[in-house]
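Journal club prep — side note

Before the paper discussion, L.F. wants everyone to see what a predicted structure for a comparable chain looks like in token form. Sequence:
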Amino acid sequence: MPTTSTPVTRLGLLAALALVVGTATGARAFHTQFDFTVDRFEVDGNAFGPADGVPDHVDDFTDSTLGAFTAYFGSPTPHTDGLHLRSPGTHYTLGPFPVLLDMSAVRSSMPVTDGAGNFTATAVWAPTTVPTNNYFYLTLFAFGSTLEVAGIGIDNFDPTVAAQFSPNQPPGLSITQHRAHATFLSWDPPELSTVTIDPSELTGAILFRLSFDDRTNMLSTAFSLDGGQTWRTPFPPMPFFTSSTAASFLLGADPGSLKPGPPPPPPPAPNICPGAAALHGELTARKLDHVTGSQALTFAGTVGLALVPAFDPIHDPLQLLLQDDATPDAPLFDATGGVAVPPGGPGTGCDPRDGWKVHGAVAGYRNRSNALPPLCTPGSAQGIQAVRLKNRATDVAVAVRTKGSPVVAPSGVTYPLTLVFGASPAAIDAARCGRGSFHGCRFSRGSMRCRDVL
């Protein structure tokens, strides 16, 4: 069984990066039929109990729930015989890499942490063949000053797909150990070790194991192709928790196919207010690595127009739109139209305290119900908690704060932010709006911070 180490990526590593880095863009659809079953996932040690060889946490998914996991891509489906990672997947292409992915994956909600002791995690996959250009894996990933990804999986490239990598990868069945560091916008060349296997060696359940030594901060991998009767450890240990302190597990399946050619660059995000005044300031988005709906946004800055007397928050709504030039048709955060900040003073909202208060040149909005009238549907305010406007001679100072908001993880380089002071289209026709495109953003620990405006 020859073993090779190469600096190019495999499908499972790409999937882990797509999950957390968010650099994937929608690909042209290809329809792969796949269904791989996880019989059991177990962890021994660390935060779950003593590392004594006896599992402290076990998910067998036979109660038809995802247990301690959350669906992140595609169509993961729990059933009485285990967790099915199946089609239809989520279609992705990632940067310059020569494959399209069709992803189904789950992410654990139970962290392991640096300093909490050794741990061993094992994923048991039901006996199966691995069709051409399919892949499944167990990966550990963590956020810190960089993203850390490490794990092990099995793939089966055909010669055409294998030849797309540089250097070329061996066609046929292979077990690959992977490790990489990444940020939101880029990642270092992955470190890979690959061992080829013969299809006749698949004689039972396929098991992947990750073992962490808390004293040395080294992660070791192992695999079994015969239901756990024998284990193989051909790969060297890998450093982990080098820039992070907590990590989650990812179970996934990523069939792949050749790229049909580079897609054209996306058009710029549409400008909903072409006559907008210049917007400047600082934009921050937090918890981008969490489940959508738990993010927080803050903006503090100025818009270069005088609002008095054109805008009256007691009678006019305030609209906010955060876009991503990489995904122009999918805003990162949209509080326009029927979900804009509503007009009206206290007592006009879904909580008696919701609404605007105006004191001279300063107007402040509070929303404690996280709901918008008239229906007051829970969560309809999208986490918008506070807005403050201060009219000055030549501009207006603006501050916006949200919490528990559905902010999509960014994937581009430029992020336009538009504020519309009033209802569309009247406010837009009157150019009562501000717009600025943030770039040069910094990403760290699941947060984005932007100060530069084009």
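L.F.'s comment for the group: The chain has two domains: 3-258, 277-453. Keep this in mind when we get to the figures.
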